[in-house]
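cron nightly-structures :: item 1 of 1
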Amino acid sequence: QHVTRPLIAYLCDFNIMDKFSQCHMALLAGTSHPQLAELIAASLNTRPTKAEISKFSNGETSVVITESIRSKDVFILQSICPPSPNDTLIELLIMIDAVKRASAARVTAVIPCFGYARQSKKHKSRTPISSKLVANLLETAGVDRIITVDLHSSQIQGFFDVPVDNLYAERLITKYIRKKIPGEWVVVAPGVGGVKRAKSISDLLDAGFALLHKESNYSMLKRTANESFYTPAKPGLSGDDSLRRRALGSHSMEDIASLSSSLSQAVASPRPMPAVSRLEFDLEASSSSSPATRVAMLQITPDISPAASPAIPHDDTHAKRMTLVGDVVGKVAIIIDDIVDTCDTLALATRTLMQCGAKEVYAFASHGMMSGHAVDVVNSLVGLKELVITNSIPNDRTLAACPRVRQINIASFLGDAIRRTHHGESMESLFEMPTK
């Protein structure tokens, strides 16, 4: 009895129990992000399982696990990310198959950046739902569980028939903001899809909230393509008065009196005009005037009929116009998003916020893909103080080329999720936001 009690007390120490249970766990790393694998292994007080991953001369992927993983709880770390998302996906599938054939007890895929997440629905006819296909491939390969960070669309969890733990990086972002960003904050969602993510952070920080609504050239042209400019005049009104009433609704004619000369000059202009399908009045309240003071803008929409111009590609990732909903005057604007890719949307959002009176702009994103000309865009942005990303994707070149980019380490965060999964503990605390 005297010997048993000290032994029990000794085994109940967290570190000893942790090491005791980890003899049945194996961490296998792919080639997408070996640095993150080393950091996670260090947080777990273990080392990655040895494996030889290479390519044959014909380009096919070869995976050989050089240690026994029989009856072990295997965690495979692999981000499906640039510069070769297709290669990293196939490599992950082959690794899962190799582990299953090596008699592992359970296989968990730890995917910090889940590729193809932006293709989670049909945007138009005859297009695939690629993220659903990726889910089917992973399940067919034999995965038992998925751990990922900030899925672009939460609905992707429903594409799987196995458990999916979608961790949120907001808790790490909130900690960074409180520690390193002074001033009066206003959290900005750069699109309707990111409202929930940004609003949760603004509530936690007790900060203001604003929304940027973006429209691509394709969306603007498509919205006005089939509308006709010429309609019958109302009784008792001239053609010009009828046009103004239809454009400006119930507003008085005095509100647009100042436009008469401008409209007359535009109509009488001898300059060659493009094919026009609609003239549109966009009435907005001026932020620098009283509510009665209005500004009316004349927009000329080109005719996009097949005879007038070639087809316009549908690419909503390139926003051409943004409308701000909220107050950012004199405040520190904090843009919250899940992915930054080409940074075109970030550039437009930053310019819009600075034009609307923001003091300075910070941007946060869970996955910094930084493809194409993204580094040049960030370096040239006026008003952008920092772009903060996580290390879910290797960004050594980006950090070296762009001094404005900062990085948040999520290794211990993922390590905690792996530890809890291995021990069968609840993951609830990882989904909860820290208290104020």
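cron nightly-structures :: done
The CA atoms of residues 19 and 45 lie 8 Å apart.
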